[in-house]
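Example 326.
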Amino acid sequence: MSGSYKLVARTSRPEGSTVSIGDVVIGGKEFVVAAGPCAVESKDQLMQAATGVASAGARLLRAGAFKPRTSPYAFQGLAEEGLHLLAYAGRLTGLPTVTEVLATEDIPLVAEYSDALQVGARNMQNFALLKALGAVTKPVILKRGLSATIEELMMAAEYIVLHGNPRVVLCERGIRTFETATRNTLDLNAVALLKQMTHLPVIVDPSHGTGRRDLIVPLSHAAVAIGADGLLVEVHPTPDLALSDGAQSITPAAFASLMCELAALTPIKQRQLAHGRDVASHRGRLASIDDAVDRLLRERARLTHIQSSEPNVSNIGRLPREILKL
Ligand code: PEP
Ligand code: MN
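Predicted structure in complex with manganese (II) ion:
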């Protein structure tokens, strides 16, 4: 009953609320895409994923450092080292970060390194964790529990808001049903209904929602159409080698093509999507990359020149400024 979630009920804020993660606003005009690997595995893996998703137009970088795994023998995440790498990748790409907090005692550490804290499906009704997140000044992405009703999700959000933190984003990530063809059943009913029931932004996770990378594109399209405020997508440089959730992860190239399709779709819902080809926002970084490439090519030309005593080869140093101007 709505008395159980009065703070998050749509009636308490009919115009809807927005939640900022860093400089990214969820719940406004923009359709916000968070992307990145399920887990931080190594600096290389994370950087490849992060630069790939950033250049395709993702607005938030996601990756788990503390991983909730069904099997205790499965990769559990890099923990604090993973948080360091995520913060580094976030700084380098300019993307605010999102990562899961598994336990109440880890909140200060995770909040120190990440721009937003994710509550995983398995913790949606960890009431001690939810209450403690009420005291945090960073936003929370609350994922729906595997077998949680829509009302239970609303009440879980109410816990966080009631305890002092109004910055909550809900995430539909699929629920457990009788169906075995997919890992979970992405409940699009819930997205449409939540948009009526609550003023909080609602995003969709088609990776966990299906468990299959071949379903991420169609379900992402559906998320736009149903009125979601954004997506959370798992992207890995080599999905088949991923230490977790490879089957539901797409490559940076596939992600870039998904983003192009979304850019065409979002206007039907009067939404905008950050554009992967919008290099203006990366001008500073592009210039420093150009300079580095320039320097290396000059050095290469100098060495080649010494070895081959070819006088014209030093002209290579003039190339990059031309070819890198996009
Ligand atoms: C995740 O986002 O990688 C994750 C563990 O999600 P969920 O809690 O929805 O299973
Ligand atoms: Mn995952």
